[in-house]
Amino acid sequence: MVHQAPPDVCLKRERTFEEVRDNINITTPAAEKTEFNLPPYRSWADRKKKRADRPWVKAQKAAEKAYKRYIVEGLLRQKPIPPSKDGRHIPLQPGLARRKSLKDERTGHAYISNFIRSSRYTVWNFFPKQLFFQFSKLANFLLPGHRTTGTYTTIGPLIAFVALSMAKEGYDDYRRYRMDKLENRSSACVLDPEGTVKDRSRADRLAARGFFKKEKTGSEEQVTELESVRADGVVSAQWAKVEWQDIRVGDIIRLQRDENVPADIILLSATGPNGVAFIETMALDGETNLKSKQASPLLAKHCSTTVDMGKCEAEVVSEDPNIDLYNYEGRVTVNGETMPLTSNEVVYRGSTLRNTSEAIGLVINSGEECKIRMNANKNARAKAPPNAARLGYIIWRGQYERKAFYLHEGSVSLGQIFIAFVIAYNTLIPLSLYVSLEIVKLGQLFLLSDIEMYDPVTDTPMVANTTTILENLGQVSFVFSDKTGTLTENMMKFRKMSVAGSAWLHDMDLQREAEKDGNQPVRREVVEPAEKGSRLVVPKFSARVADPEMMEQPLVEGRRSESGRPPRTSTASRWKSSVYPTPSQPDNKTEDLIQYLNNKPNSHFSRKTGQFILCMALCHTCLPETKDNGEISFQAASPDELALVEAARDLGYLLVDRAAQSMTLQIRNPDGTTTTEKYEILDVIEFSSKRKRMSIVIRMPDGRLCMFTKGADSAILPRLRQKQLAIQTASAIERRASMRRSVEQEKAFRRLSLQSPKRESMNLRRALDRKDSWRKSVQITDEVDHWLSRREGVDDEAGPVDGYRSPRRSMVGGRSVELARSFELSRLADPYDGLVDETLAINDAAVFERCFQHVDDFATEGLRTLIFAYRYLDEDDYRKWKTIFHQATTSLVKRQERIEDAAELIEQEFDLAGATAIEDKLQQGVPETIDKLRRANIKVWMLTGDKRETAINIAHSARICKPFSEVYILDVTQGDLQERLAMTLTDVCRGMVPHSVAVIDGHTLSVVEDSETLSVLFYDLVARVDSVICCRASPSQKANLVKCIRRQTPQAVTLAIGDGANDIAMIQSSHVGIGISGREGLQAARISDYSIAQFRFLQRLLFVHGRWNYVRSGKYILGTFWKEVIFYLIQAHYQRYNGYTGTSIYESTSLTVFNTIFTSLPVIIPGIFERDLSAETLLALPELYSFGQKCRGFNYLQYLGWMFMAVAESVVVYYAVHYIYANVSHWPVETDLFPVGTLVYSLAVVFINLKLMFLEVHDRTLVILGGMVVSMGGWWLWNIVLSALMKKTVAPYVVRDAFLYGFGSNGMWWLVHFVVLSALVVFELGVTAVRRSLWPTDRDLMQEVESVQGVKEVLREHAAGNGGYPPAAAAAGNAASRRATQEFVRPQFTPPAEERENPMESLGAKMAAEGPQRA
Questions:
Q1: 1140: left (phi over 0), alpha (psi -120 to 50) or beta
Q2: pLDDT over threshold 60, residue 1412
Q3: What gap in Å lies between CA 175 and CA 1075, rounded to an integer?
Q4: 482, 856, 920, 1059: the active-site residue
């Protein structure tokens, strides 16, 4: 067999988006230009190209090229590895790789080890890299030369600050190293027939030396011999345990069930049926379905045992390492016979062996060359901050120097003056800014250990791996989320079904969980028997209600039972749709269905339902397993199949055994007995992404042949016996759904048009200004609660159509009470009369309409829908088809295509059985969290490796897609992609869509990336839509999407969140990386910036701690610069009187400790503990999160405002002291340099502490007030110590006894101090009052609202209702709210969309109307 060698892998640098975009006009074919012309993009690309031709851009590119050539490739010897000729040749010889490492043909050296590293530094490069990074900061590079402020004023703090920063970076990286070590030192079994592996591992050797202890169990023996015995009784193989990092290319490894794959391997054998191994690739591509991998027939024939491996001559030729997860090319040659290798025979690192007891494979890629590591982003990111005095000296020299007698015509050179000013004022950007900022971030880091971000189920707290980007948590604009394990729990649950035109809800699993947790279910009470002529009795409900949440669920009304007949009872539904939490669910539950089938087993509906449940019980590939306690569990390749089989068990059809060619069911009879039936399996046509269905041919116990099939509606409907009727009905349902979506879009537009944040704020401002309105705290509290309720329910007004309701509801809800009474009395003889409509079950058109309507409703609710169908086969037709199918399954060429062609011949003329809806269970609080993220103006993207239909369903259930969302599917296989992109972009730019979602798959994305014009269109589109769903995406594609958004919108902060190894590249490419400690392991949590246990904790991390940290950091930086400017501008004002020589007005010892002792706490303590708004307010009002997105906490305008205040206040301080104290005062008042300097120093220190720790602080806690007392008290204590301990010297600063017995005992000094300080405080308060009155911000208004009695409790209640607080806190908040307001009652129902006006405007109008009445 001829096999083509794999293509060469070109290791060239990928072009950036700007480079691609700039060359659109050059590389776009002419035909493409004439076919579709975009003048705006052409002109824009021309402008970008002209910018790229500028000299400095060319110089930068030339420098990058030279650096790569001479430094990277020349000095560091890091040359790109050339591709091999035809791939890497790996001999299949047991023990060969253990004796001597195989050589890589590309480098001539041994293949790289299986060691992986995600830490940024090593022992050897940590100090060089960190020293370069630290001294690349300008403030750290300014070393003192000429000293005007003391010898050690700068160099001492510099060394301490740099050492502290380096220690912090080293500790953060050490934690990453420890996590890497856990993975590198995991154990795996390798084939070592010659015993070259030592008996003890490195960990054991270290343990023997006393480095650390290692516990050993009986199953953890280091050397294990497999008793693979030949006929002569000789042991044929020896397996040894080695650490993952010691595995080599060419090793033969053995995997046990549920073990992780340590390297990329070619499968040699497996113990599954027909040699199949089931592999979970969740950590690679996010898919929950197990992949079936099977060894190549050539390997299975000659290398199935270790003995056969030693006898044959085999060689595997594998493609060079690359990032493509979905394609693989290779070949295997055994004894001269060659066969190709595809992705069906290869298993990648990061996968897990499931449902297979053992598998053996050959290592082909190791370490950083494994697919999952090549898809990881290995570029560590780092982040990194300018003098004037000559003019002042020149002016002073002309005006004063030449006339001063005491200078004796002396002069100072301009160079010395320049250097003196650099040194004197280098603390305007003080070194303490960096070290105290690190202290602030460290304090913020400790406060992130929030108990409400702790998951008690998994015992997982929130963990922060870095302190450098804490403020970025408050500025996020894009969230890129994985699906599996991040939004979902990787658990599928059967939730709804439609059979014979009736919809049923299945929540037995929720009831079992509730009973297991000790919660009593809400029972639908039995209606007491009524005598003839008695009046209609209202159904009663049991008082056994343990969970208040259940009270909000719709309760199905009870039915009377005739005396002597067992009543029909069931529990009220515990399940609530995440898409439509308000509308009621289907009236009927599967508990009612079981009772109906038991009481009417021979009705037409019962026979149809029985056939449907039989479809569920037989159409799958699950394997039952009997546990030690007798319970039966199931092993399934797909969690969907597991959910279906478990649902069939709940409905009375239990799978008890499955052999290679048969299945045994235990069926529950109406009388309570069970019957065991055996079904013969003839053929199984497996599911594939192309077919979108799975079929099985069964010989029934009565001898008839039946084919069962399940799949997507698009795959089943054209194959029904009445396909024309089915397609017409489905089209009508789709048209109605489109019309309903249009109506909902109009309502959404109406709601948007009624919103006016500016008017809200102004009306609330006027309402709060009325003094009499404060006495109406209850009314304000009620209005705030009403407003929050409407905002939370803004998208819940719409609901599914009335397809769930059974016919009896319309009868009960008739126009007269008499009709309802007659209907109830007619059911007394039979409590199940009217439960279903038997006439509907025999009407195919009605069944089609109801079933397809149910499917549409299920899908809108985010449930995964499947259509079940069946047909009975003729024996002759089956035998003819069997021959064709057998030829297809044994074909060596195009086997899959032939199987699909054969399946098309028989998968026709089906009868509809019904439809199922499976819930991909979301993590707790995911829909509410995404709703709040959207309200916070954060765009949520979902990037997953799962298939499109699954991704869209999850997007609906997680509320990434709204019921009125316009979903644009971008698929290169569905026509002209460029035209589709242009039309979608035009539609979105017109603003006619209230909520737009773009859906693209990995294949289409790769086509977009290869086309320059498509890239420009696509990346412009995704930056404008509300959400993006990217399915079937590789890890590198996820990372590229994040990088492109960062380039498209450089001002936006991006956040990526995931839980698997396939999310590492995406997490590292974003500004903020969040890892979920989930079921896929700790790979993402290990390398992320922050790790949390649940997605719902993201709202508290961003809205509360992110907002607080951003506010704290902004106020810290502003406060630091403000205090430095006010302090050193006083120094600058003094230069006018000393000839601009740099002479300091402050004594050098006090000057040295200004930033360290006296003004460090005023910025550090508020930077750690300040809270401008409460957590309840921030969680209940996510709209406040825009404070950080719009940079309202730190921007140029704010900086200029603070600097203006610093300049004005420095003028007040210096010139007030100069003219009131220094010039006016005479003896005995001391007015020399030290008293004046100490006076202005004292004013600066006291006012800095007073402003930053009292006037500018909203949350004035004892910690902050205590810090202010300590800081100011420390200054006066410092003066006493200096006055008592300093030596008497003749110097400009006479310190000894000056404070104790000199100016400190003079009342004039203290009077001036008090007067100037009072003036500063009055000036500060006046400016703040004017600003809040004329330009109030949302923060100002909400701070006033929080002070209203009862409002805070309402805010806590709304915050708890959306996942911000645990249920206990919610209950406490509700009780506190009731006590505070007494008469306050929360609205039970969300008002309709038409009534959703501006809440602040209504509040303002209401309070304005009450003002004149009270006057």
A1: left
A2: no
A3: 15
A4: 482
